[in-house]
């Protein structure tokens, strides 16, 4: 996508509902500064994998005059919770100011459409470059250096993401992001029809084809998510990837235990960071949970997650 080189007014940030960050006032001084604006939302796996680079740039070029501004614009309703955003800021070690953009005012001011999105703004307030999604890290850092008038070894070449921040295994990734709410849900495979916004009992099919998903137990399928109405409900999917993640929320309820099986067995050494080798985990705050990181040959697998208490809200599978 070509860059339009439009001027960004400081008023673009006036719509922020709150500022989080190291400065007492929250909102940084941007006039006459080179600025990197990073749009994110806390459950986005693409942002999580790009975040180590933004963090490294902020630290490497702060003394050269770079100001990094995060803009948290929520994809799902529960991501409007400031406490959850603060937890994400702490977990990702974000040490630059973050505008909480619950009303999408900053998003609209930039005419943005993506998570993550980077805007590179010069000291005159002109957007000199932009990038959407993951990748292109070395070129992005070169843009930062041009804005600052510096030239030195790139820190991007030294970045190594860990845990959920690790780069995807693109060579073996054959499963797309999969939403479960009816507004964007596809490839639902449980027998019978979906009852929109009504509680209904579902069953798993005899077989799941690649990238299909299904429910078992008593669930309510809403626009954004599926909500478990009775303990013991299961979500299953068939995927081909090294990593399997699930966006979950408890809706403010007590912690909800869950169990993950892969092809009917405990994941063992291929468990994700949010479950143990037996497949046991606990849903607490709303965020992205890593369920599987495959240590053996990557192939088609069937993942099942069963919740021990009602109230689990399940939003989307993502893979890596």
TrEMBL record:
InterPro entries tied to this protein: Thioredoxin-like_sf (IPR036249), Thioredoxin_10 (IPR041017), Thioredoxin_domain (IPR013766), Thioredoxin_ResA/DsbE_sf (IPR050553)
Q: Which SUPFAM superfamilies match?
A: Thioredoxin-like (SSF52833)
Residue span, Thioredoxin domain? 1-149
- Which positions are tagged coiled coil? none
Could you tell me the superkingdom of the organism this chain comes from? Bacteria
Q: Which Pfam families match?
A: Thioredoxin_10
Q: Which PANTHER family match?
A: PROTEIN DIPZ, THIOL:DISULFIDE INTERCHANGE PROTEIN DSBE
State what protein this is by name: Thioredoxin domain-containing protein
List the top taxonomic levels of the source: Bacteria, Bacillati, Actinomycetota, Actinomycetes, Micromonosporales
């Amino acid at each position: 996508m070509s860059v339009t080189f439009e001027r960004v007014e400081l008023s673009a940030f006036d719509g922020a509902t709150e500022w989080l960050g190291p400065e007492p006032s929250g909102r940084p001084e941007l006039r006459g500064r080179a600025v990197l604006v990073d749009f994110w939302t806390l459950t986005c796996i693409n942002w999580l994998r790009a975040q180590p680079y933004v963090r490294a740039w902020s630290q490497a070029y702060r003394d050269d005059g770079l100001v990094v501004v995060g803009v948290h614009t929520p994809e799902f309703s529960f991501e409007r919770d400031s406490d959850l955003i603060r937890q994400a800021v702490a977990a990702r070690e974000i040490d630059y100011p973050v505008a909480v953009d619950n009303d999408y005012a900053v998003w609209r001011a930039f005419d943005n459409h993506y998570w993550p999105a980077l805007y590179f703004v010069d000291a005159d307030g002109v957007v000199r470059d932009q990038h959407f999604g993951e990748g292109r890290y070395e070129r992005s850092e070169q843009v930062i250096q041009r804005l600052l008038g510096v030239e030195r070894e790139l820190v991007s070449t030294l970045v190594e993401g860990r845990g959920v921040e690790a780069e995807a295994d693109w060579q073996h990734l054959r499963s797309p992001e999969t939403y479960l709410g009816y507004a964007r849900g596809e490839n639902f495979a449980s027998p019978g029809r979906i009852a929109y916004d009504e509680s209904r009992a579902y069953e798993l099919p005899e077989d799941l084809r690649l990238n299909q998903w299904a429910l078992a137990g008593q669930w309510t399928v809403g626009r954004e998510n599926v909500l478990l109405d009775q303990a013991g409900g299961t979500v299953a999917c068939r995927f081909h990837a090294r990593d399997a993640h699930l966006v979950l929320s408890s809706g403010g309820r007590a912690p909800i235990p869950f169990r993950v099986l892969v092809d009917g067995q405990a994941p063992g050494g291929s468990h994700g960071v949010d479950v143990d080798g037996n497949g046991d985990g606990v849903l607490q705050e709303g965020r992205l949970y890593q369920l599987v990181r495959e240590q053996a040959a990557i192939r088609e697998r069937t993942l099942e997650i069963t919740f021990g208490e009602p109230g689990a809200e399940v939003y989307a599978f993502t893979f890596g």
